[in-house]
Model the fold of this input.
Amino acid sequence: MPSHHVLVLNCGSSSFKFAIIDPHHGETLLNGLAERLNDSNPAMKYTYNGTKTNIELASFSSHTIAIESLVSIIQDLNLSDSLIAVGHRVVHGGETFTQSVEITPDVLAAIQKTSNLAPLHNPANLIGIEAAQHAFPNLKQIAVFDTAFHQTIPEHAYLYAIPYSLYQDHGIRRYGFHGTSHYYVSDMACKTLGLDKQNSKIITAHLGNGCSVSAIKNGQSVDTSMGLTPLEGLVMGTRSGDIDPGLFSYLTSQLNYSNEQVDALLNKQSGLLGLSQLSNDCREIEDAAQAGHRQALLALDIFCYRLAKYISSYLVPLGGLDALIFTGGIGENSSLIRQKVLSHLSFVGVRCDDSQNEIARFGKGGIISANGSSVQAAVIPTNEEWVIATDAAALTLETK
Ligand code: AMP
Done:
């Protein structure tokens, strides 16, 4: 097997996703998931050549143990020699990282330093990096940051209107996340819609369990809805998105919430779950709404209204709009959400083609705006792993 594949690792706090990808064409040779790590009932599975395999993990297996299992799988399938690099998704790169980098001791220290901005994510990413360095000592390890693409956002868009010293002394500002996805789908949008990237105005809506929207002008991010943390912005699966910050002191002083309880309320009990009182899963909410469940209908309405409001506000940094792109589990599959959002935005000049909108599901993508619509709308399945593999391969070959 030719030696040019990249192992892509995406470590979360209790799970990690992995894939072996051909960076040239984006084909996935192997992919899988380890979940419920450090829990009594962990699970690991992978798909290779169309065959799905489940791997047994002992209770309370750690990330390191699961990565050791992954190494055995790679060895058993004789794939070790095909690898040229390991690409790691790292959630927060702060202002230090504006692009992907090879992981050196200095880079590791800088990621560690940024952990205070992403205490749920960066420590898990670091565990993955250290385990992979141990498992693959001869491979280059590359970090690809969720925040990097948004480092072009101008000061007037990333600063909060709070004392400037909090930015100077503590780096408190808006950073934005899902950067790899926003970059990928905006780049694909230029290719598939025939736009001149250097002269383009695109809004990308990444709608999954976490949701964010970005304004991308001439290929560069100029605004995005997530902030210092991934809590700001749109209504999400379990996150509230924007709220009045006064709510925090109201909950603590009037309702005796602790800081941890407020944090859990806003991150884990809000969003679609909190509003619907049913589920954070958009499919379940859509089914319930169809059956007339009032809270489910309300949750969908609020989700779409907030998203449409954000999209229209991004006409300010863009000064117009060429294309609106939907991606992520909800964006790629929910024709109902897309139709509701587009119906709010007809004044912007985007008209939905209902039958194309119905067809664009299950990873197929496609243009969903009607012929003659002055703004194009499209569904483009995201592929963050491919971007990570491409960056990792480019940096590896560059330094060989
Ligand atoms: P992600 O985080 O990108 O994997 O997206 C997860 C979200 O996508 C969940 O809210 C799912 O309910 C939603 N989703 C996946 N498939 C569909 C579908 N066919 N219709 C509506 N929502 C979907």
Summary: The pocket of adenosine monophosphate is lined by residues 208-209, 237, 281-283, 286, 328-330, 333-334 (CB under 6 Å). The longest helix spans residues 294-313. The first strand starts at residue 5 and ends at 11. The domain at 195-384 is CATH 3.30.420.40 (Nucleotidyltransferase; domain 5).
